[in-house]
Design brief:
Blueprint lengths: L25 E2 L2 E2 L5 E4 L2 E2 L2 H11 L5 H4 L3 E5 L1 H9 L5 E6 L8 H17 L3 E5 L1 H7 L4 H16 L8 E5 H7 L1 H13 L2 H8 L7 H11 L8 H4 L7 E6 L3 H10 L9 E5 L27 H11 L8 H7 L7 H9 L3 H13 L4 H24 L3 H7 L10
Parallel strand pairs: 6-7, 6-9, 7-8, 9-10
Antiparallel strand pairs: 1-2, 4-5, 5-10
Helix pairs in contact: 1-3, 5-6, 8-10, 10-12, 13-17, 15-17
The structure holds tryptophan.
Enzyme class: ligase
Protein name: tryptophan--tRNA ligase
InterPro entries: aa-tRNA-synth_I_CS (IPR001412), aa-tRNA-synth_Ic (IPR002305), Rossmann-like_a/b/a_fold (IPR014729), Trp-tRNA-ligase (IPR002306)
Length: 403
């Protein structure tokens, strides 16, 4: 089984170039297509892989995997080989803390990561890139660091196990961990300015902080960056669940890993969570109406869904009954695929909406109830996350795993 895509010529060398005139250009800031599996050597998550995950874990896969929301991967078969052989690996994911309140879409990778951790029972490290947000946004450095703590609370509220999870802010951890910084330096030495220009589109007037930042996002892929957790081992492989826009960082990481004598990280990529206004429009933390925030009240949720969720239904009731609704563009339906766990119920809704029997209003009502429940539950869980609990998660320490 080859872990690489067909286009990669030399073992250990990732396809870092951005094809000319390529309308699937993917960098962390421009993603114009979700048909990117296959590009740059990543692979589609197909039925064969899903069946294999179910077989080796003895559990049905998470609906985000089953429904194609996580749709692309690198080296997931290798991770399953390790699991079958009872060899260790670990999970790494992260978040750029850019706003006070996270929205529902931000939860998706973490909900999925939690399932992975519970299913495979492995250590998890979560990087909060307060440095990244300071460099990219109009944010004071202290504010970026404060947001890291605030976002940690939302992440912890999803129910991660403190004995198996380490959450860190770059600003704090990097200064305290020599081995992490050593890995950053190793990566910095192996990647040229030309390469990061090609991968991330940096230009001459980007600050030098941005240009070297990719090394910081790469470093947690290596177990030696966490000497307390892995007891100094540098050979424990890593699996990274993330949204597809983060892939460029890890293409770069995979390219340098063999030259560092360290394993390449494996990846599971998700598509984007659509804005309420539709798949085409971009969700933005500065537009409160573009998504549902974890701080929204029941009333706000109801109003936003009713007013802004793009409908794939007919213009009039008559037209809708005649022609039916279009689930492919209907945002309420899309959101249900993310949050309604019951497969049968979802299939029934799809059937009845497509035939025109169900009206958009019904779909929205169903969605509103589900989202209100999720956000209420989240709010209650977050209230239970004390400063002391946040501190426990964010203290460098040994986890409940032996190496
Ligand atoms: N750059 C990511 C963001 O802006 C944060 C991040 C850091 C991340 N490390 C990661 C995301 C690993 C996924 C996986 O949100």
């Amino acid at each position: 089984m080859s872990g690489e895509g067909v286009e990669v010529p030399t073992p250990g060398v990732e396809n870092l170039s951005v094809a000319e005139g390529n309308d699937d250009f993917v960098d962390p800031w421009n993603v114009q297509s979700s048909s990117t599996a296959g590009r740059f050597g990543s692979q589609k998550i197909d039925d064969e892989l899903i069946n294999r995950i179910e077989k080796v874990t003895g559990k049905p896969v998470h609906h985000l995997l089953r429904r194609g929301i996580f749709f692309s991967q690198r080296d997931m078969h290798q991770i399953l080989n390790l699991y079958e052989q009872k060899k260790p690996f670990f999970l790494y994911t992260g978040r750029g803390p850019s706003s006070d309140s996270m929205h529902l879409g931000h939860l998706i990778p973490f909900i999925f990561t939690k399932w992975l951790q519970e299913t495979f029972d492995v250590p998890l490290v979560i990087q909060l890139t307060d440095d990244e947000k300071f460099l990219w946004k109009d944010l004071a450095i202290e504010e970026a660091n404060r947001l890291a703590y605030l976002n940690a609370r939302d992440i912890i509220a999803l129910g991660f196990d403190v004995n198996k999870t380490f959450i860190f802010s770059d600003m704090e951890y990097i200064g305290s961990c020599k081995e992490f910084y050593m890995n950053m330096c190793r990566v910095q030495k192996l990647v040229t300015f030309n390469q990061v220009k090609g991968i991330f589109g940096f230009g001459d007037s980007d600050c030098i902080g941005k240009i070297s930042f990719p090394a910081i996002q790469a470093a947690p892929s290596f177990s030696s960056s966490f000497p307390l957790i892995f007891n100094g081992r540098k050979d424990v492989p890593c699996l990274i669940p993330c949204a597809i826009d983060q892939d460029p960082y890890f293409r770069m990481t995979r390219d340098v890993a063999p030259r560092m004598n360290m394993p390449k990280p494996a990846l599971l990529h998700s598509t984007f969570f659509p804005a309420l206004q539709g798949v085409q429009s971009k969700m933005s933390a500065s537009d409160p109406n573009s998504s549902i925030f974890l701080t929204d009240t029941d009333k706000q949720i109801k109003n936003k869904v009713n007013k802004y969720a793009f409908s794939g239904g007919g213009a009039t009731v008559e037209e809708h009954k005649e022609k039916g609704g279009n689930c492919d563009v209907d945002v309420s339906y899309q959101y249900l695929t993310f949050f309604l766990e019951d497969d049968e119920r979802l299939a029934q809704i799809k059937k009845d909406y497509t035939s025109g029997e169900l009206l958009t209003g019904y779909l929205k009502k169903e969605l509103i109830e589900i989202l209100q429940k999720i956000v209420t539950q989240h709010r209650e869980n977050r209230l239970k996350v004390t400063d002391d609990i946040v501190k426990q998660f964010m203290t460098p320490r040994k986890l409940n795993f032996q190496y």
